Amino acid sequence: MxxxxxxxxxxxxxxxxxxxxxxxxxxxxxxxxxHVAYYVDGTLLFEAxxxxxxxxxxxxxxxxxxxKRLKLPLETRRAILNRIIATEGAGYGWGEIAALFLRxxxxxxxxxDDRQRYICSEEIVRATYEETGLRIVDQITFDVSPxxxxxxxxxxxx
Length: 158
Description:
The protein is of the alpha+beta class. It is 34% helix and 24% strand. InterPro entries: Papain-like_cys_pep_sf.
């Protein structure tokens, strides 16, 4: 078992209850990862989920995943995690999903940011930028996929 720390990024390959949406994300992004969540403590995660508002989840809901960690000091990662958790109750960013789909499947350079709604991989990109000024992906907007996040040079495998 991996020694998880606050704000570790959990890249989800499979959940106990698979969904068509997860399959679509993998197909669109050409990635094995359909979702990301953020480690809080114990078995507690935080996520922006298409099936409900942003909130807490349990690690036991996942059956296959990989973990990456921001290359930042622990106190900075905790501050980033607090910004992520502050989005609890926010709606899902369907506009961001539509922009990702158009960009990745049709090459239409559409970017969309709704500051009141979030997609899973956007959470850490936005929170890191707000906390540190760092753009951890090579893009000026926050509508990024789990695959985009996986490729970030600011994350290292745990």
